[in-house]
Amino acid sequence: MRFALTAAVSLFALAACSPESDAPETEAPETERSQAQDQLESDAASEEGAAAATETAEPGAEPDFSDIEGNDFEEASHGWSYEGEGGPENWGSLGADYATCDTGSEQSPVDLVSTDMAAQNTPDINWTPASSATVADTGHTIVVMVEDAGGLTLGETRYELVQFHFHAGSEHTIDGEQYPLEVHFVHASEAGELAVVGMMFEEGAASSALSGVWASLPEGEGETDLDVALDPNAFLPEDDAIWRYEGSLTTPPCSEGVAWTVFQTPITAAGEQIEDFTARYDDNYRPVQPLNARSLREGDAG
Fold first, then answer.
1. Where exactly are the structural domains of the chain?
2. For the whole model, what pTM was predicted?
3. Rounded to an integer, what is the distance from CA 13 to the centroid of its chain?
């Protein structure tokens, strides 16, 4: 299933291993040998399932454990949501591999404010029209997975654009103000590092870029091929002023070390376009997190 959108499962989260023993081998009774063999086969099956999930993982979206027996994405203890017992305030207690959601010191999103600190590195964005794209309703958001759509360079590191997805309301806030919609463009380097570019939407003129995506939405959870040409540059604002900071994934496992860039100028979408998304996903955002010892920096995207 292609939309096993496993945001950095292979990068940060999912690791399966079987315990090994250094004890010398001894002859065991037939019953014990049979039980041991059954356990080995069970462990091997679990490891194969985890390996399969990792091999099919695409960097940069939500972690999905549904391909592993006994770890159903919605029903198991790892199931997370944006409200109730599985909501953001409880993510860190849903599983040991989600603990960073509570204990991390560089979590995203954050409130973005003016600063006089200049960014040491600003992204050189060189997106290109995608050779192909797939739109997926994941049960948590709408994700557009792209191929051959360019990427960005940050410092000396090259990141390729993998996918982009949406949150309503916005996850980041600007001077405490939340916007009705936010889009995150997720990039991955060859080494598995992540860089995310965020943009806020405010209600205004219709977005031609959104029109093409919304026209291809699957009826429910699932995926469809995008039936129009997709150029991610159509989302870029005219003003290239940005904030830079080091943060995390905004969904479990909330892994840190993500290089964030957020444009300061919102882009626009018609009220009907925003409603098309919120009719499916309203309030699918993580609240802002403490900045702690981090610094926000400003600059201009290339």
1. 106-300
2. 0.77
3. 12
Peptide bond before residue 19 is cis, with ω within 30 degrees of 0: no
Q: What angle do CA 116, 122, 128 make, to 5 degrees?
A: 145
Give the pLDDT confidence of 88-138 residue by residue, as tens digits. Answer: 999 999 999 999 999 999 999 999 999 989 998 999 999 999 999 999 999
Question: Is 184 assigned a catalytic role?
Answer: no
Dihedral through CA 109, CA 113, CA 116, CA 117, nearest 10? 0
Which string of b and e fits 197-217 if b means at least 16 CB within 10 Å? bbbbbebeeebebbbbbbebb
Yes or no: say if 212 and 269 are a contact pair by the CB < 8 Å rule: no
**Domain 106-300 of CATH type 3.10.200.10:** yes
CA distance 149 to 60: 15
Q: How many CB atoms lie within 10 A of CB 280?
A: 16
Dihedral sign for Cα atoms in the order 150, 155, 157, 161 = negative
Strand partners, 195: 187, 259
Helix spans in 109-248 (H)? 208-214
Catalytic residue among 140, 165, 184, 187: 140
Helices (H), ranges, 129-270:
208-214
Q: Using one digit for the tens of pLDDT, what is the confidence trace for 58-96?
A: 444 443 323 322 222 233 336 899 999 999 999 999 999
pLDDT category at 25 given cuts 50, 70, 90 is: very low
Residue type, 60: G
CA distance 186 to 165: 8
- Six-digit token string for 264: 């300061």
Q: Which residues have C-beta within 8 Å of that of residue 132, sequence separation ≥ 6?
A: 146, 147, 148, 225, 226
DSSP secondary structure letter of residue 185? E
> Which three-class secondary structure state does DSSP give residue 147?
strand
